[in-house]
Amino acid sequence: MSRLNYHHLFYFWRVAVVGNLTQVARELHISQSALSVQIKQLEHNMDVALFERSGRSLKLTDMGTRVLAYANDIFSKGEELESFLIKGVEAEIQHISIGVLTTLSRNFVESFITPLLADPKVSFSLTARRMNNLLVGLANHELDLVLTNRPVALDNHDALWQTQLVSRQPLSIVGPKANKIHTTFPQGYDDVRWVLPGKATEIRSAFNSLCASWQYQPDVKAEADDMAMLRLLARDSGALAVLPTVVVKDEIAQGILEEYQRLPNAFEHFYAITAQRKFVPEVLLALLQQHQKKK
């Protein structure tokens, strides 16, 4: 493979970002044919197809999407340097892309991104996906960070992912405020019904262990893996739930629900996952360090 031509890479980057060959040629003051030739030369030198061409339209290939992520890092840093040299200031806005597990508590996500909301020099995007799709997004450099309550499998030996525990929330029994049970579990819990996370979740495993230690058999009315759905069930069903109070903090503040008691030595863990070979924006590093201190 020939050495990477950054001039050609810049042309590819502009076309990929703008999405229009004619417009980019006009902005760069070169002919459209010359621009097209140089992008094809980049593809030839790298021995990859970056665009799928259909008539006048261009669509990034999978490899093109991955190359674009690297080009974003390279040229965004270049623009930041140029801004610093000319104006003596850093680039005005830094952008990060965050992937969120579809079943994760939205209240936790909100608390995690609060520092970003307060920073006028930062913009961000949130994308909810299933776990496998989140990891694909990291691998393809579509995402800078993934938030999840599930760590990457321990049998993954390819050293691709970096997992950081950013928070742990104590698990509690939560129910209607008007019907609060004041005795310690399992006393007084014989005739109640439960809405619980799915059997494969960390929360359910902790609750099952507690029940087994007391030989208590819960009467399960409903199960839900999605924290947003579990929140609604806890609010509207009249049954008791087991979850971190952060999930239902609004309902507790409004007096609809109340924390009956915390489960002993039981927590839900929240993780931030990044791709080790991916350039990590400085604002993201600072965010992770901030949550590491809070943990």
From TrEMBL:
Domain HTH lysR-type: 4-61
Protein keywords: DNA-binding, Transcription, Transcription regulation
Similarity annotation: Belongs to the LysR transcriptional regulatory family.
InterPro entries for the chain: LysR_HTH_N, LysR_subst-bd, WH-like_DNA-bd_sf, WH_DNA-bd_sf
Transmembrane regions: none
Protein known as: LysR family transcriptional regulator
Pfam families, sorted: HTH_1, LysR_substrate
PANTHER family hit by this protein: HTH-TYPE TRANSCRIPTIONAL ACTIVATOR BAUR, HTH-TYPE TRANSCRIPTIONAL REGULATOR
